[in-house]
Amino acid sequence: MRFAALLLAWLTAAAPAAAQACEASVISKPGEVIAALEGGRTGPVLVMWSVERREGVGEEADHFARPGLMIDFRVGADGALAPERVVVSVTRYSDPELGRAPPLSEVRVRAVPAGSRAIEWGGDDPSKGEAALAKQLKGAWPAELVVEVVARGVVVASSTFDLSVLPVVRGTALQAIAKCRG
Q: Engineered SS bond to 157: which of 111, 129, 149, 170, CB 3.0-4.6 Å?
């Protein structure tokens, strides 16, 4: 009974703080944009963009779907989006007729921003590669990004992402932020 009373007291105190956070989503042609306001309507803003793959471009093969891409941004005082984190999703699956998919330890991911050097990392350890890609995007925002999944030296899946739509994403982010601040 004492635990229940302590839990109730904690929930009562924590509820106003938890209620201050807000997330709002807007879907547009470039993909879904989610704004997360930390600490209420006036706190720092994080924007997450789930980037749409370019239609009709890319490939997938047995055991692998086309890779996905999510980019997190910090929003500056002037509304500018500064890339902070990148997540490349690699989806592999086994099939009873095809057998088991290769382990991620045998998979390499290669991200090639237009006009920049390729960044490559192991499929089972994306943290350093994704961090390097985020850093590269901070330095020079490309018009396009190609992501390839390579297994046993062969490209088994790829996607192309149109990053030239960043101004549209910024407008969509402002709409999502306005939903929270509304």
A: 149
